[in-house]
User: Fold this.
Amino acid sequence: MNISAEQLYALATEVGHLLKDQGLQLVTAESCTGGWLSKVITDIPGSSHWYERGFVTYTNMAKREMLGVSAETLVRYGAVSEETVREMVKGALKRSHGQVSVGISGIAGPGGATIYKPVGTVCLAWNFKGVIKSITQHFEGDREQVRAQAVRDALQGLLKVCGKQ
Assistant:
C-alpha cells in the first residue's frame, strides 16, 4: 500500500482546519513513526495555530520519562500495545498545553516481531479532552509502508475523534 506525501498533506490540512476551527491544540506522541507524523503536520503552513508539540519516544525509557508510561504497563503489555499508547496520549496531554493527542507505537520491521506481534502491528490512540480511544492495526508492506499507513490512520483517527465523520 503506497501512500503519497500529497495524501498525507491533504489529511493533515483537513485535521488542521478542524482543530483550528474548534480552537484546539494537538500534541503527538510517536514511537515507530519517529516524528513522521509531526513532520507531516508541520509541513502545513500555519500549523503553529493548532499544533502544540510532539514527543518522539522511541525507547521504553523515553516513554516512561517523557510521557509517564508506567514500567508495569511496559513489562506486562509491551511497548506495542493499546495499554501503552493509551498511557502515551494521556501523558502527552498532561505534559503539554494541548486538548487533543494522538499516540503511535508499533513494529515497522524488518525485525522486532514476535509470534503474537508480527511486523506491521501498530497500536494507535487518541485523547480528545480526556476521552481515550485506541485500536490495533495490522499493516502490510515494508518499513516505510507500515509507517506511512500508521501516519495516515493517526490523521484519519483525529478527524473522527474531533467530530468529522
Summary: The chain has one domain: 5-161. The longest strand covers residues 121-128. The beta strands are 26-30, 51-56, 100-106, 121-128, 131-138. Residues 143-161 form the longest helix (19 residues).
